[in-house]
Structure formats: structure tokens, C-alpha cells
Amino acid sequence: MSERKSDSERDDGERAFFGRRKGHKLRQHQAGLIDHLLPHLALDIASEAPANAGEIFDPAASEVRLEIGFGGGEHLAAEAQNFPATGFIGCEPYVNGMAKILAQIEAANIGNIRLFAGDAAELLAWLPQASLSRIDLIHPDPWPKRRHWKRRFVQDRTIAAMARVLKPGGEFRFVCDIDDYCAWTLSHLARSPDFEWLAERADDFRQPWAGYTMTRYGRKAAREGRKAAYLRFQRV
Fold it and tell me: Where along the chain is substrate bound (predicted)?
């Protein structure tokens, strides 16, 4: 067995992923979805990327959006049903979250979602340049301890990776109820020449954007008295 490498010994791709792979034991039906439905929807980034990301879908999608770390999949499933001509890619390394979105896809017969059960940084590197219209990051793990800040998804290198795959005018949308991570995200995006913060007044980030589907975690945060910020950044 090889020795586990320290953070300092890992390359950037390895450092970008720190998610848990599996939590509670899957129920029989959930395990069946992982075994039989997921292979039909999973992206194979070992293969050559299509020239147009819309070709990932059948029929081809007019535009493509990505949700990173979709958790229970409530937001992703709702968006896919509200925008049937748009293709949605959901990235989630947590197996239980993947089982939950598969159950929703099966129940509602959703045909415009494709899935990636791995590191979002690797997926971003695989996608064609200027291929996405939007990227959503909703209630990510804040890694609140200072020594863990390098594990946060929002970093200079991931911002550059998102800028590469977003079309001009495309958006990165970020939702978080942890003030420190919101400030972190604003400071990192502010120093990027590729993004512009779209807020013009306080309610632009204090209130969800039109049509937003509240997630289970978002409702839990509200019950516990934590107010989320809804940040939108446009690719210039």
C-alpha cells in the first residue's frame, strides 16, 4: 500500500478535492440507481471532450449549465425541469447526494441532466473553452478553520478555470450562509480580471434571485438564524 501524501506533496488537482465519498448506507433502490442509471448519465472525462458541450446531451442542448456540489439535488432537479432546452451538468463526489439526484431524475423522467461523480477541477479542465452559460456553487463546505482555507473551492486557480469555460456574459452564482466565506469569495472574485460582481443594491445579494429553489440546507440555515448571501458574477 502506498503512503498517503501530505497536502504539500499533492499537486493542484489532488488538493482541489476534499469531499466525503460516502455517508449513510444506501437503500437497495438507491444502490440500484447507482449501479444501473448512473452509468447512462455519467460523463467520462477520460474520453475526448466534445467540441460543443451541448453535444453531451440527446437531443443536443442549446446551452449548458453546471452545478458544483449539488448536495441533495433539489436545486439542480428544479432547474432542469424549469429549463428543458438547457443541458445541466451536476458534479457531486458524495455518493449519497448522487443517489438522491438519481431518484429525482427517475421519478420525474428528467432527460437533460448529466452527472460527474468526482473532482470539479478535473471536470472544468475537461470541458471545452467558453462552453457554459452558468456555474452554480450553492452552500459549499466553508472549511471554516484557517488551516483548511486552501480546501475551499473558490481559489484563484478555480476562478481562472471557471473563466475559461464560461461564455462572455455567462455567470458564476454563489450562495453561502457563512459570512467569512462570502467575504473570501468577494475578495477573490474582485481581484480577477475576468469577472464583475452584478450587485447594484443590498437586496441584490440579500435576496435570492428570481426563480431560485431553496435547498434543504438553505432552509436549515434559515431556521438556525443564519442569513445567506446570493452573489452573482458575470464573465466579462
Answer: 145, 177
